[in-house]
Design a protein that fits this description.
The structure is a single chain. This protein has 18 helices and no strands. It is mainly α. The two termini are 30 Å apart. It has one domain.
Length: 450
Amino acid sequence: MINKNNLIYDFLSRNFWFTLSVIIVLISGLLNQYFPILLSFILITVLYYFKSITKIIIFFIICLVLSDNLSNSLKYFEIVRIICIITIFFYSIYSAKLTKSLVNNLLAILPFWFIILLSLSNSPTLSQSFFRSISYILLPVISFITIKDEIRKYNNYLISDLLIFSTLILIIGNLAYFLLPDYFIIYGEGASLRFSGLFGNPNGQGIYCFLLIPINSYAIKAKMISKPVGNIILITTFISIILSGSRTALGCSILFYIYWSINNFNLYLRAFLKITLPMIAIIFASVTINIVKQNKDISQRLRFETLADAGGRLSSWKWGILQIKEHPFIGAGLKYDQTLYQTKISAFIRNNYRGMNASYSGILALILDTGIIGFIFFNIFIFYSFYQFIDRTIIVPLLITFNISITFESWIVATLNPYTILFFLQITLYQNVSTNKAKTGSNKYNFLIH
């Protein structure tokens, strides 16, 4: 049982040897590129032998973060993450028990899987698209079976450990930027300096923090972690978002937290605020923009000069939308959007025109990769999954901010990144863990006011 009064001591007592093993794996990478792969395989084997699946999942997420890093010295984690996902998948199949919720979740995503595989018939890079398609099938299976079991069996160790390890990743990454600047790629300069920590780019750190905030907020409400520890995690993630300079992540995180906090108000006041909040946000944004215009440092920090074209995204979106007509119904396979921008747009334009090197939108990428039919099936799966949440108060905040996030970032179409796994983990968490204040009632649409 988690000791919420001394969560850090409880964490260290359970994870000392595991943490030490991860550090040894990292240090071995300084000696030889093959040592960490061998040590990681031994670590995963030992953890599997002792049925420490929670730690394998945590190690998998750590590997996803480090493999996202652009440093060549961490490239071996691309192999380690594959070992992890295969191990967890086979354990999922071995331990799977057919339940109504499992069958319903799999049936909800099955049409999207079918379109993903069908779209491969149009793919110009079949092998790459195929492996990404397979991993997009593995992740939900892992989430709906193994992550669900780990959350239920071990008193939420998975969630508390995930939050603490993620906080350590953010702290270490941002401190390393100050202490070891020569080993990291610096983005921007002066007031517009941006930090990516251990992630591949600043927006990556921002997205990860945005996805952590709902998990942390829910964990506090469900009493998985103590409020003081949860507040430390919350402050760390917000500081990391600000250091990353990710405007989308910052806006989504603030909006989620405001909507989530409103749930503590009177019933009718909640309904009124949720309806009027968009209007208040527009007025607040207008006032803020005028203030930012007059402050040079804040303007540079928010890269105010790029707001008009959404950081170059508008040009990229206009071009990408015109390409939908090539494969409008089932797309051309996962990763097709990346191939499209890299092959049909000249290197000169990609390097000299901001935003023209990628789609920069999960919605556009989904349509390009899986077509209009795939996009519809994906949304059916999302709405079904959200509809199954036990505590419906999280539906509106998460649904709004999730859609904003994937409008401006394309992380949802990738698989072996540290973001998509967190999203599926959230779905599993909210479907299987209740909070003391959850009100499901007889009215299935009460999430509109609760």
